[in-house]
TrEMBL record:
The keyword Heme applies. Transmembrane segments: none annotated. The keyword Metal-binding applies. PANTHER family: P450, PUTATIVE (EUROFUNG)-RELATED (PTHR46696:SF6). InterPro entries: Cyt_P450, Cyt_P450_B, Cyt_P450_CS, Cyt_P450_sf. Keywords: Heme, Iron, Metal-binding, Monooxygenase, Oxidoreductase. This is Cytochrome P450. GO terms for molecular function: heme binding; iron ion binding; monooxygenase activity; oxidoreductase activity, acting on paired donors, with incorporation or reduction of molecular oxygen. Belongs to the cytochrome P450 family.
Length: 400
């Protein structure tokens, strides 16, 4: 547990875009099970060691929400939302729900999607070059690419992307928005998705939501409208917000030390392992994952009683020297690389094959099109996203 009665305010901010808080290492060494105060004022337990985080995330007994779980923010946030509560959180029903979604993220589908994603990335780079140097890589490429991809997957119009971004931010709120604004935005989001699903029911397309509307799971059951709305909202948020932020962070990490970019130019075959390493190395990964412990569990730092709300810091776990040799170094050829950035076990990120594909394609296209790319500001001057559960950078100024 933490030293004495120490309570750490959480989340712990990084030093800068590429340098993690020193607190991570201190907690891993001295307080691997730490008492933390969340933005809501509620208290929870923070896990920072790789083995502990993986164990709790992978345990199928533990879910992301419960009636008496600690609230992440005063507004509840994505972990305690209506969206989370309307989807099955554990057991056979959860697995049936996941199987219906994961059919859309198979290796075969990713191969089919790659040419279209590459063509869109090229078009966005064309526009960025036309607008001229310097540019904000996040606004020009990092945000619009994954939005286009997820909108195409769900059959929703990309022209609504600014609304999606705002609705997503309110759902991911920690301290940025007031309750009335959040309630209004979420009501709009639910109404929008319900309308889209009604339209798709009348005129199905070749998209994921159309298939979910018309199909059944392994038990022969159809999704309720409430589940369809929540599934659509969840995929829309996860499908653009996290990947958009990771594209910006990945490029910031690789350009902060010009040697990394030169190594990739010299050997583009490193792209796949470089993407995995930036996912592991991420110093600004956001809040982490919540698990509500329905039963007592023993971890390396002690016994966690039933009823504990555990915050699993994948960012800290990914820097654990016990799991990764030279964990503080960015090694573009690191393999194997069993990082926890997408979680572990039955609640691991469904869309991780798509996220990996988008990151790889983005990097390949930029290396090919803009070999002279560099940061337009010092890495230490990049500004982090604040007040939201997702990590990221507000902008990534680049020149070429």
């Amino acid at each position: 547990m933490t030293d004495g009665d120490e309570i750490v305010d959480y989340p712990i901010p990084p030093v800068n875009a590429i340098q993690p808080p020193a607190e991570w290492e201190r907690l891993r060494q001295r307080c691997p099970v730490a008492h933390v105060r969340l933005p809501s004022g509620d208290q929870a337990t923070l896990l920072t060691r790789y083995d502990d985080v993986k164990q709790v995330l992978a345990d199928p007994r533990f879910t992301r929400t419960a009636d008496d779980a600690a609230r992440v923010s005063e507004s509840g946030g994505v972990f305690n939302s209506e969206m989370a509560s309307s989807l099955p959180q554990s057991g056979a029903a959860h697995q049936r729900w996941r199987r219906r979604i994961t059919k859309w993220f198979t290796a075969k589908r990713m191969i089919a999607l790659r040419p279209g994603i590459e063509a869109m990335a090229d078009r966005l780079v064309d526009e960025m070059i036309k607008q001229g140097s310097p540019a904000d890589l996040k606004a020009s490429l990092g945000f619009p690419l994954p939005v286009w991809v997820i909108c195409d997957l769900l059959g929703v119009p990309e022209s609504d992307r600014d609304r999606f971004a705002y609705w997503s931010d309110t759902l991911l709120n920690l301290t940025r928005y007031e309750q009335a604004e959040i309630d209004s935005a979420q009501a709009e989001f639910v109404a929008y998705m319900a309308g889209h699903i009604a339209a798709r029911r009348e005129a199905p397309g070749a998209d994921l939501l159309s298939e979910l509307i018309t199909g059944t799971d392994a038990a022969g059951e159809r999704m309720t409208d409430r589940m369809l709305v929540s599934t659509g909202m969840g995929l829309l948020v996860a499908g653009h917000e996290t990947t958009a932020n990771m594209i910006g962070k990945m490029l910031a990490m690789l350009l902060a030390d010009r040697g990394h970019w030169e190594a990739l130019l010299a050997d583009p075959a490193l792209v796949r392992t470089a993407v995995e390493e930036t996912l592991r190395y991420d110093a600004n990964p956001g809040f982490g994952m919540i698990r509500y412990l329905s039963e007592e569990v023993e971890v390396s730092g002690g016994v966690l009683p039933a009823g504990t709300t555990a915050v699993c810091s994948m960012g800290s776990a990914n820097r654990d020297e016990a799991a990764f040799e030279d964990a503080a170094e960015l090694d573009l050829s690191r393999s194997p690389n069993v990082h926890l950035s997408f979680g572990a076990g039955p609640h691991s990120c469904i869309g991780q094959p798509l996220a990996r594909l988008e990151l790889q394609v983005t990097l390949e296209v930029l290396l090919r099109r803009l070999p002279t790319l560099e940061l337009a500001v010092a890495a230490a001057d990049l500004r982090p996203v604040e007040g939201l559960a997702v990590g990221g950078l507000r902008e990534v100024p680049v020149k070429w």
